[in-house]
Structure prediction request, 269 residues.
Amino acid sequence: MGAGAGPAVLGLAALVALWAGAGAGCAEEGRCCRGRDSTCVATGWRLSRAYGTCFCDEACRTTGDCCYDYAQACPALPCIVGEWTQWSGCAEQCKPNFRMRTRVMQQEPKNGGDPCPPLEEKAGCLEYATYQGQDCADEHVPAFITTFEYSRERKKRAVHPRWSSETEDSRSYCVEFKTETLSPHCSLESRPYARWMQYLREGYTVCVTCQPPAMHTGRHRCSGDGGNADGNTVLQWQAVGNPSCHGTWKKVQQVEECSCPLVHSFIFT
Prediction:
């Protein structure tokens, strides 16, 4: 460098030389550590432009003391999961319970990558036949309801002999109710396949479809549909999948097909 170079130029040159030659960080040390690890260290520049001890563990992103090359030497890898399995049948027959589906983790998250979403989901269900094919619909009196989404699962699995013996939904009917009361637990439900409970509101009109698998043998009615109840009769309902979500409603009318918005449409289970 020429004799006329000023102190600022000399200082910059020294800084560049130090950056390039003194301590190469995580890459040269070959270090990338999981979680918080105070022994996962190297010598070099930090992203804060301080020189000295720097770290190559996942926690350094939070504490702000990563080596300058951490992002390149230890790239963040997100969790990758597979597809959901098919929903299982109900855990128990003839009583409100849960069906379940799972998915597997195909790649663990590393170096601060996005964590895994839930690997298991449960949703409410109720089946009206034992494993031996015996009908047990008469055991239930309250109106057990679940999301209309379960209707598609019923058709796909054809779990009840009465379902396949009917032509489409020839015996299905819809009952409109006006909700009177409901427990606060409905609005607090946050599980992905139980969020439908959040749409239950006091004073709203909801539609509930009665399908063959939920009908009583012989009289072809669903438990809790109100039967011949007038508009002043207070009836009980409960959300399958969350026993704490329950309330009362009054029957408005029975119609052939439901006309409520999807978020206010349910099925007897």
